[in-house]
Amino acid sequence: MDEKESLGKYLKRERENRNVSLKEVSKQIKVREPLLKAVEEEERNLLPSATYVKGFLSAYAKYLGLDPNEIIRRYEAESKEEPISQPEAPPQRRILGSPKYLWMAGGLIIVGFIVLYLILSPPPPPVPPPPAEPVAKKAIPQGPPPSVSEKPSALEEKGISLGIKTVERTWVEIRIDGQPAREATFQPGESFTYRGAERIELLVGNAGGLEMTFNERPLEKIGKSGEVVTVILTPQGVEVKRPEPVKSVEQ
Length: 251
Hints:
Layout: H1 7-17, H2 22-29, H3 33-40, H4 50-64, H5 68-81, H6 99-120, H7 154-157, E1 160-166, E2 170-176, E3 182-186, E4 191-196, E5 200-204, E6 210-214, E7 217-218, E8 229-234, E9 237-241
């Protein structure tokens, strides 16, 4: 690998040498095509967290038959070369000498004098209330207390429950019962619970960063740190899928 050649150009050249499209790579390693294109085009501002990027770069390298450790090393080296711009602090506004502030201060002083006058003024003599006529108490019949149903809800009777505890920073894409997918980056120490009726599907960018339970029963580790996996949960059980490496194409 030529050190003068950028990582994105190198991956693009290796992919094109194997006559593999980005669409095919996306399908095989379960990573969205725009993210792969952003890597090849050096558009770092469009990429998610570094942990997730390392995860799918490792899967991309294995798919192309390249050394994943060398690809990760090159990515980290290029990331350190990018300068980090510090945001400029907004200028402080001086309001002490403004006319608006002086008017507000004067108004507060006047209100303070009014409140002080009301507190120190003697209260008027109390007016005795008229004698109250005795009112006969009328008994109000009380009905039986409302019954509490002990029958569990439909969600408790059937469906699937997924518990997640984060131990490492992890990017996740989750889809429940065919609804539109949602993306999130979990931080260490966070915990979440998801419920579905028929199917929960996860695309995990750092398999070693999560501890999971299925219907409140702990699951084994779904993979190693930095590994990209797909987890599918149904009432029948749990399935873990990993991207398959591409076979080298002879020139």
